[in-house]
Amino acid sequence: MQEAVVNILLVDDEQRNLDALEAILTGPGYRLLRADDADKALKTLLENDVAAIVLDIKMPGVSGFELAKLIKGTRRFREIPILFLTAYLLEDQDVLAGYGAGAVDYLTKPLNPQILRLKIGVFADLFRKTRALAELNSTLEARVQERTAELEASEAALRAASKQKDAFLATLAHELRNPLAPLRMGLDLLLQVPDPPQSTTRVLAAMNRQLEHMVRLIDDLLDVSRISRGMLELKKERADLGTLVERAIDTARPFVDARKQTISVNVRAPVSAVVDTTRVCQIVGNLLHNASKYAPTGGEIRLELVREGDAAVIRVADRGVGIPADQLERVFDMFARIERSVPSANTGLGIGLALSRQLAELHGGTLAASSAGEGQGATFTLRLPALSGPLAQAAPAGSGVGDTHRTPNALRIVLIEDNEDAADTLAMWLEEMGHAVQVARTGPDGLALVQEARPDVVLCDVGLPGMDGVEVCRRVKELPDVHPLMVAITGWATDADRRRTGEAGFDHHLVKPVAPDKLRDILRVATALS
Questions:
Q1: What's the CATH superfamily of 412-529?
Q2: Which residues pair with 105 in a beta bridge?
Q3: Is 233-385 assigned to CATH 3.40.50.1950?
Q4: Which of 139, 284, 434, 446 is 20 to 30 Å apart from 231, CA to CA?
Q5: 253-258: long-range contacts at Cβ-Cβ below 8 A with a sequence spacing of 24 or more?
Q6: For the chain, which residues score pLDDT lower than 50?
Q7: Where are the alpha helices (DSSP H) in 334-468?
């Protein structure tokens, strides 16, 4: 590869000296530039990129020392090496003055051509390498800028995709909850029919279990989205973990009973902790559901609650298909599928365990899995920070067995819902409880009906035609002498949605499909206040 041609500046007041220098240095790698005084030398430097300067010391007017100082005093030229030429023997102070002016070396006339060529060759090679390095740095900098721009664009695209995903999940959950709402209320109505045929009872029980499963999957999907965005807020309170374990068992009972399994519970002593009670029930419920799924039909699930040091420990163990040792951590990966030597018919979305670990970590706890291997069952261990001393906690009023379906006194209720199936089944359910119900299908009609009927309770969908539920609530709150209990019933379930309805004046925010027990409790309180 041919070397790049570099410029060498020759400065001498005598033309014959310049000719001699040219004769020595002429070659394919150099372009020789001539100047016979300081002004021409500076002009040449301004017009050309120079690799080295060969400079005579003794020149009329501006001497070589003075010209060197001018050159080195200019930022653009200060890195150019200067080789001084002299026909005189120099004293030490003259040599020091030359180096102080910026010289890198001296040669004495008459010149040794070979030495001059070697020295200029070194300067030229250094110049080429410096220029190549600068070009490489410039290329790298341009590539870095290009790559940075690509990464920023990629990050922006990922943020947009994540935002789209969250919006999609929220919309999907809303759209799925709307058709589930009439199913929930319709099933509850059918489950209350006295003395149904045994076949009907089995079918309804199966439908109820599957409906609960569908609702839980939707909630899990949204919870995963909230956690990934850092938007899940824990509502912590002091709680008895034994009570929460019982509640979790109640939620898992339909699935466990369907597989004719039993749950043995060992609570060695009362253990209390500051936790989000709903989320802890969700974790334990997921563990029980997972154990039931992979345990054999008719098998036993063991649940233990103990205190170990400063930790409350809940263990859920089964004697089912087990987990291969190399797959233990994968069970907590989102959408994970465990690879087994014998494929299992029981599969799911792979959300429950991943969500449960994230919820445990949000509480400052841990969730771990252990197994002796395939066919040896598995144990999941939840550890949470425990409080010192037991917590005696009385059951809330109205939560006793058999009290769930207690019928309150009749209330005047306005139901504003544009989904006909949801409105009709909820109205039937309310009327079955003895309430007087009037239904409106749009926001404006609902507002007019509230003004006319002056109800005790308004159950209002948020996504209404004509006027959304938030605006309906605001206007109801402005009505004189009309003060109903405002309950939002909606498929939107994010914290932002709850804040929005709360700021509008809703007293409660219920997510479709509404749990009948929750609505009964609200109506019970409304009855007491009416």
A1: Response regulator (3.40.50.2300)
A2: 83
A3: no
A4: 284
A5: 254/205, 254/208, 254/209, 254/212, 255/209, 255/213, 255/289, 255/292, 255/293, 256/288, 256/292, 256/301, 258/205, 258/206, 258/209
A6: 345, 390-408
A7: 352-362, 420-432, 443-453
pLDDT, tens digit (0-9, with 9 covering 90-100), for 461-472: 998 999 999 999
Distance between CA atoms of residues 106 and 325, nearest Å: 77
Does domain 6-111 match CATH 3.40.50.300?
Answer: no
Q: How far is Cα 153 from Cα 145, in angstroms, rounded to an integer?
A: 12
Provide the CB-side half-sphere exposure for 64 (13 A, CA). Answer: 27
Which pair of tokens denotes residue 299? 């098998």
- Please name the helix (run of DSSP H) or strand (run of DSSP E) that holds residue 333, with its range, or none: none
Whether this prediction's pTM lies above 0.85 is answered by no
Bridge-partner residues for 385, per DSSP?
311
b/e 36-73 (16+ beta carbons within 10 angstroms → b): bbbeebbebbeeeebbbbbbbbebeebbbbebbebbbe
Nearest to residue 238, comparing CAs of 384, 102, 381, 383?
Answer: 384
